[in-house]
Specification:
The protein is of the alpha+beta class and about 100 residues long. It has helices spanning about 5-10, 15-20, 45-70; strands spanning about 5, 30, 35-40. A three-stranded mixed sheet has the order 1-2-3. A hairpin with a 2-residue loop joins strand 2 (about 30) and strand 3. The N and C termini lie far apart (about 75 Å).
């Protein structure tokens, strides 16, 4: 659970709040009118949060790509695949 503090009080106690976060391992939520506004977390916590976000995005991309290959055609629908390029022997690209 995070320690909550109103923004007006947080302004006056910023140095103490930073110490609580860095040395006490606490998380501080600054509120305005009782609603969470911002959170103070250690740099290590922030790095962990950002790493988790990257991992979540990577997992989503992997799931998305994996599911693309499993799509099936509708009944009666045929897929046709054409040749995008073909090899026509040796070509001298030097312009000679």
């Amino acid at each position: 659970m995070a320690y909550e503090i109103p923004v007006t009080q947080a302004r006056a106690e910023l140095a103490e709040l930073i110490n609580r976060v860095v040395y006490g391992g606490e998380r501080v939520v600054v509120t305005r009118h009782g609603k969470p506004l911002v959170a103070l977390v250690s740099a290590a916590d922030l790095q962990r949060l950002e790493s988790d976000e990257v991992e979540a995005v990577e997992e989503q991309v992997i799931r998305s790509v994996s599911s693309t290959g499993s799509a099936t055609s509708a009944p009666g629908e045929r897929r046709s695949v054409g040749i995008a390029a073909e090899h026509r022997g040796h070509h001298d690209w030097s312009g000679d």
